[in-house]
Each structure stands twice: as structure tokens, then as C-alpha cells.
Amino acid sequence: MPLLSLYAATNAVLVVLYGLLPAEMNRSWIFLLVTLGAMPAIAVALRRAPAGARQAWWLLLASMTLYNIGNVMWLWLVLADGRTTGDGSAAEFFLTGGSVLVLGSALIVVVQRGKRDIGGIIDSVISALALTGILWDTLLLPALSDQGATTGREAAVFVNVLVMAGTLGALLRISFAGSDALASVRLLTLAVGIALFGNVAGALAVDPATGARADWTNITYLAAYAALGCAALHPSVAAVTRPGEAPVDNLSTGRLAFLGTMMALSPLVGGGRVIFGLPTDGVLIAISSAALIPLVMIRIARLSSARRRAERALHRMATSDPLTGLPNRAACVDHLTEALASDPTGLAVLFCDLDGFKPVNDRLGHAAGDDLLVAVADHLRRDLRDGDLVSRFGGDEFVIITRGDQAVDVIADRIRTLAAHPLTAAGTEVRIGVSVGIAHAHPDDTTDGILTRADLAMYEAKKAKTIGALSLSVAA
């Protein structure tokens, strides 16, 4: 990574040089060198990023364009008026626009990289927003009040810090969650973190006499630009938009307690400050809380949905045959028990056993045997009526539960068709027979009783031992 090393070393020298040179000197050229130098670095990222996944880097390139326009205007102010910052001038408009595009780029990375970890990202954003509320109440608001800042200025600082903190929280999550964390993402996270620190420092470190931001805060922005360029030049930039790992996301008591604490943190701190007579901005605290509540509700809804999906998956595993997808023996027994308990009238059980399955399995292999079982299952469940059940009872045995003599005849014809035509297993046509035992329910029948009669009838039918044919036997 010689290009990255050269870029990082050059920018480190420029940042140190800016800090060492006296403030009276014209150091705006250092800013231009750093911001202009980030543009070719981002161009390299655009070339390395996969086609269709370059939106984040296009936004970064646009942001650097705005930054450089703002910095050129600032340079003009320095030369013409002797100013040290572009705050309050037209240059600030372009610098703010650049910051917005950087955040937009970071959010694109979060969405693309973290699409498999939405829950974890929401948790991180909730934490960041809650902690920002405390930062605002305990540090930023008192400082801005002492400075006599207007309501518009307070609102601008609050929204800027809130959005940057939320973005940083999401970036931290995708930077360190999982085993496939990327250096490029971490450098982007570092850039946003440094920029957030610079914004907070810029709001706090203000000359009370002139209202000008402290000159040393510019160093933080230089470092942020440099980190952004390093993120663009790192070889891992090509994988920045690749979805990360999907971690386990459980609805635990600890997780719920954490979400509740984060939601209550800002109002509690704000209320405590009111009790002690300290300055508190109720409107902006309310805005912060209003942003948190829907996030917490979405998070709880996602966790609840994930739990329901897990429960349904476990139920399917417990009641379904993994090969054919048919209900398994346990599900068949439960269905039959419920049917007998509700109304045994007209209920019939067809116990089916494949004749000639073992020779196919021995000759062509177990994979062919699996193919054959799947083909039989697909044939048996075709055009099934509501209320009827086809299950794989075990091995090459299938049990069908239906009602009415006509339904039994229809299913028997379907099985007869199955036995009369060859099936494909592992690319080879094979023929099998089917032995079927039929048992009609008695008024006082039990589940074991009717299954046993159907099983015995099936063995009576199997005595014919005709491969490629249907053998039927009806139990008394």
C-alpha cells in the first residue's frame, strides 16, 4: 500500500505543520492542499469500487468539491479581510453543504454494509442519540447560552451534532461487528468521529469577545479530511458496500432494558437539570426524545418479529419431514387424533408403502433414493383437498388422511397413476409399486387403532409383491 502510506505521511506532516505555524501566518494553503488532495484519493476509490456500488464515493467527491469551493472563498476572505475562519460568510454555505454530503455518503455505506444487521445499527443509533441528548444538556447548551447564541444557532448546532452522532453510532456498529470488519470502513468512521469532535469543539471553544471559533479546531477538520482520503485509498475500499455478517439478534431481557434506559436517559437528565435550576432546552430535548421513540418501537417490533419467525421455524422443524417437506409422523398423529376427536364419520386412513424402493436405493445410491421419495411426495400432495393430509410416516412409508369414499377412490386413482408410470431418480427412469392399506374409522376408534389396522391392511396388499403396480387392501 505505498500510495496509502505516502498519502497518510504527507497529510500527517501538513496537519502538524498547521499546528506549529503561528496563527498570524497565512495557513489557508494547507487546508487547500489537504482538501484538494482528498479528491484524487476518492477518484481512486471510485475506480476500485464495483460498478453499481459507487454512490457513496460520488457523494464524497461532490462533498470535496463543495469543501474546496468553500475553502477557496475562505482563502479570499483571509487575503482580503484578514479573517481566520469562514464562519458566518458565504463560504460557510458550501462548507455546510460538503458536510451534508459526507453524512449522506456515510449513510449509504451504513445501509449497504449493514443491511444484514439492521437491528444492531438501530441499537447503535439509539445509543448515540441518547448520549447526544446528555452532551447537549450538560455541555453544549450551557456554553451556547453563555455565548448569547440565537435560537437558530442553537437549533443548527443541535441538529448537526445529533445527525452526525447518529451516523457515527451506525458506522461504529458496522466497523466493529463481525469478523469481516474492513479498514476502509473504520477509517471512514474515524473521519466522521473526528468531524463530530470538531463540531462540538467549535461550538464550545469560542472567543467570548469576538465570537470567533478557536483556531486550533481547524486541526480536527484537517485530520478528518486526511482520514477520509485514507479510507478511499485503502485496498479494502472495494468491499465497503458488500453486506456484512448477520449476527444473532435476540429479544432478551437485557436488550429490552437497554432500549428502555436509552429512551428514558435524555428526559431524566433534562428533568434533573430543571429540578436543580440548571438551563435546559425543553423543545430540543423533546425533539430528541421524539426521534428516539419511533426507533425504539421499530427495534422492539423487529425483535418480536424475529422471535416469531424463529418459533415458526422450530415448529416446522418439529412437524415437517426435512427431505420432502411433508408433515412428519408426529404431525400426522396429531392431525389424526384431532380428526377422530372432532368427528370420525367418513374418516379414512391410507397407509402406503413403496415396493421396489430398496433395489433402486441400492443400485443408484441414496441420492437417487431421495429423488424418488421427493417425486412420490410431489405426486401424492398434488390437488389435495383442504382438510386432507399427506405425510411421510418414515422411510418409504406415506400416510394419507381423508374423508369420504369418493375421496378415497380419487386418491387411490392418483396412487395407481403413480405406480403405472416411471419416475425419474438421479436422471434414470425407474418403476416402483405401491402397497396401500385402507382403514375406515369406527365411532370409538383410537389413533393407534386405526393406524394399526391400516398398517396390517398394507401388509396384506404387499403379499402380491408386484413392482410397478398398485396393491390395495381394505381393513375390516
UniProtKB/TrEMBL annotation:
Domain GGDEF span(s) in chain numbering: 345-476
Keywords of this entry: Membrane, Transmembrane, Transmembrane helix
Keyword Cell cycle set for record: no
Transmembrane segments: 29-46, 58-79, 91-111, 118-136, 156-175, 187-206, 218-235, 256-276, 282-301
InterPro entries reported in the protein's UniProt record: DGC-Regulatory_Protein, GGDEF_dom, Nucleotide_cyclase, Rev_trsase/Diguanyl_cyclase
Pfam families in the cross-refs: GGDEF
Protein name: GGDEF domain-containing protein
